[in-house]
């Protein structure tokens, strides 16, 4: 997740790239749409939509089974996309790149197939206070199933992980660390390299929830050295219903399958079943083939622009938004970490976030309001909800100006 | 659609200075309401005397629509019989979320009619209806209300 400033010579033309996104060219309540809810789900470029449509119109069949031409083409499209997606996060091989429905399913897979068979009563799973519910509840469930204990590393008032506490809580009974690479409620970029070193020094494997990281900067799972890495297609310009679990091959090999069914087997008899090789061992049933095609097209699209350029552009937007919005009287930012991804969560004196959401929607601006599926984070800050503007490569400074003006109107409504 | 249809003056006023925003000491009926979508939490209290709502109040936090709705509700229901309160509940349900023929005579609803703008905002209907469900739970003794 690096973000050095963009030299003018290599700067992609982001205004032109915006044209790739058909959905952005519409009016909402008579105003041009300003889509600032990218952390919830981003929009798809024409290249992704076309790739999915082409697949549906020309190549669709079930994969890995038929000898007929379409089945072969569909299998090639599917496995070809896997190869490119594995390359995008620099997995050592496609065997380490398992398709899931999304981040949530990827984390549940690790909880049930990795943690559950290993956890003993009294063992601990260490998470952080800033996790999305999808990186809390699967661990609560597996703790309930095994008698293990969920331990939560606290954050400071800026929304940063307290590394001293994290280190202290990494104890002799810690069996797994599961942490957000980037927090969706606060934008905090966690010092994951340091966290992984601390955990590995104690022989503890680490799962990273990369749902908010992969869309916003280059991620290299081998350089990170993490053991598992989960992310979702729909937050990185690909369709919904597709995501990835990266896992280190040695760990995946040791794990029993999670779901049983077609595709995950090599041979089935009533007295004995042989499981398939990685990655198919964890992909029971007919997968979301067009979703994989779409995700493949999305990583091609992102790769062509360059993740470092995207990260740098989004940091410009974040800096602009931060400066612009902090001028607003009565605005309190929630999440002011030193290292932040491109989202701005806030509350406004006298205007509940829910009302902000409706009022700015009237001006054509989409922001998220609520607890962002991270209720413990909001409890920490003592607030029931925030409003959150989150940026993608296609957003503009002008959209941020419009948000600021709309927030002034929101204050007027309640003045 | 004009924002003023949603945030009418009555609503802005009741949000800024909610009426009957306090507890009622026991003996009382009460219930908690929770909207998991936006984190709104309400606690509705009421005291009945011979089947009549002698006092009704609320506490909690929420958006302007949910606070104003609760405040207006306490004003509207004080002095009403249990049966009348449940009738108003049904009327409000019709006003907020029912079909157009369900709205009925708005003048009968008095100030509560100010919440009529909410029906144009499907995402906000639950904000306005939370306190009503909570009131009903308090009255009928069914515990926590949620909007789900
Ligand atoms: C940090 C984080 N983790 C996990 C998730 C869950 O992702 P999905 O709903 O795509 O499984 C999200 C999405 O909201 C997220 O932001």
Question: Would you mind describing this structure in some detail?
Answer:
The complex is a heterodimer of chains A (415) and B (148). Chain A is of the alpha/beta class. In chain A, 39% of the residues lie in helices and 17% in strands. In chain A, strand 1 (27-28) and strand 2 form a beta hairpin. In chain A, helix 4 runs parallel beside helix 5 (137-146). The longest helix of chain A is centred in the first third of the chain and has 20 residues, at 69-88. With 148 residues, chain B is of the alpha+beta class. Chain B has a single domain (3-140), classed as Sufe protein. Chain: A. Chain B has five helices and four strands, in the order H-H-E-E-E-H-H-H-E. Chain B has helices at residues 3-6, 9-16, 64-77, 82-97, 125-140; strands at 29-35, 40-49, 52-61, 145-146. Chain B has a four-stranded mixed β-sheet with strand order 3-2-1-4, covered by helices on one side. In chain B, strand 2 and strand 3 form a beta hairpin. The longest helix of chain B has 16 residues, at 82-97. Chain A binds chain B through residues 29, 351-355, 358-359, 362, 369-371, 375, 378, 384-385, 413-414, and chain B through 1, 3, 6-7, 12, 15-16, 37-41, 61-65, 121, 123-124, 127. The complex binds pyridoxal-5'-phosphate. Pyridoxal-5'-phosphate is lined by residues 102-104, 132, 134-135, 180, 184, 209, 211-212, 232, 243, 373 of chain A.
């Amino acid at each position: 997740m690096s973000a050095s400033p963009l030299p003018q010579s290599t700067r992609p033309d982001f205004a032109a790239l915006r044209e790739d996104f058909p959905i952005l060219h519409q009016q909402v309540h008579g105003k041009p749409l300003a889509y600032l809810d990218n952390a919830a789900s981003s929009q798809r470029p024409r290249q992704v939509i076309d790739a999915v449509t082409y697949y549906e119109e020309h190549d669709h069949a079930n994969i890995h089974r038929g000898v007929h031409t379409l089945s072969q083409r569909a299998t090639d499209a599917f496995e070809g996309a896997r190869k490119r997606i594995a390359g995008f996060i620099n997995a050592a091989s496609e065997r380490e790149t398992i398709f899931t429905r999304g981040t949530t399913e990827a984390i549940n897979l690790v909880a049930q197939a990795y943690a559950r068979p290993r956890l003993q009563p009294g063992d601990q799973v260490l998470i952080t206070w800033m996790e999305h519910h999808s990186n809390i509840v699967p661990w609560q469930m597996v703790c309930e199933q095994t008698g293990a204990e969920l331990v939560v590393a606290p954050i400071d008032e800026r929304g940063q992980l307290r590394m001293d506490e994290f280190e202290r809580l990494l104890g002799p009974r810690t069996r797994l660390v599961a942490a957000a690479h980037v927090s969706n409620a606060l934008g905090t970029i966690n010092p994951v390299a340091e966290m992984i070193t601390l955990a590995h020094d104690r022989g503890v494997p680490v799962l990273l929830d990369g749902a908010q990281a992969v869309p916003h900067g280059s991620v290299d799972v081998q350089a990170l050295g993490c053991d598992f890495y989960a992310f979702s297609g729909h937050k990185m310009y690909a369709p919904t219903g597709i995501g990835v679990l990266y896992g280190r091959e040695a760990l995946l090999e040791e794990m029993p399958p999670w779901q049983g069914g077609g595709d995950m087997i090599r041979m089935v008899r009533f007295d004995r079943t042989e499981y398939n090789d990685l990655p198919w061992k964890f992909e029971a049933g007919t997968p979301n083939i067009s979703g994989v095609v779409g995700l493949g097209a999305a990583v091609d699209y992102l790769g062509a622009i360059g993740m470092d350029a995207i990260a740098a552009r989004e940091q410009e937007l974040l800096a602009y938004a931060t400066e612009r919005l902090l001028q607003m009287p009565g605005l309190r930012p929630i999440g002011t970490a030193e290292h932040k991804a491109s989202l701005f969560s806030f509350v406004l004196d006298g205007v509940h976030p829910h009302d902000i959401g409706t009022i700015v929607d009237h001006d054509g601006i989409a922001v998220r309001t609520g607890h962002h599926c991270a209720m413990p984070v909001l409890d920490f800050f003592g607030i029931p909800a925030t409003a959150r503007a989150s940026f993608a490569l296609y957003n503009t400074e002008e959209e941020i100006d419009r948000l600021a003006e709309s927030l002034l109107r929101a204050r007027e409504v309640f003045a | 659609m004009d924002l003023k249809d949603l945030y009418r003056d009555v609503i802005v006023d009741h949000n800024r200075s909610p009426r009957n925003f306090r507890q009622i000491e026991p003996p009382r009926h009460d219930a908690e309401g929770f909207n998991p979508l936006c984190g709104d939490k309400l606690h509705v209290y009421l005291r009945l005397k011979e089947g009549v709502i002698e006092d009704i109040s609320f506490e909690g936090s929420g958006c302007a629509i949910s606070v104003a709705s609760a405040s207006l509700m306490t004003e509207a229901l004080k002095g009403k019989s249990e049966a009348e309160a449940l009738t108003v509940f049904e009327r409000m349900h019709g006003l907020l979320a029912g079909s157009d023929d369900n709205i009925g005579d708005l003048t009968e609803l008095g100030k509560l009619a100010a919440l009529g703008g909410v029906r144009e905002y499907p995402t906000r209907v639950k904000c306005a209806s939370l306190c009503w469900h909570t009131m009903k739970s308090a009255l009928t003794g069914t515990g926590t209300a949620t909007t789900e």
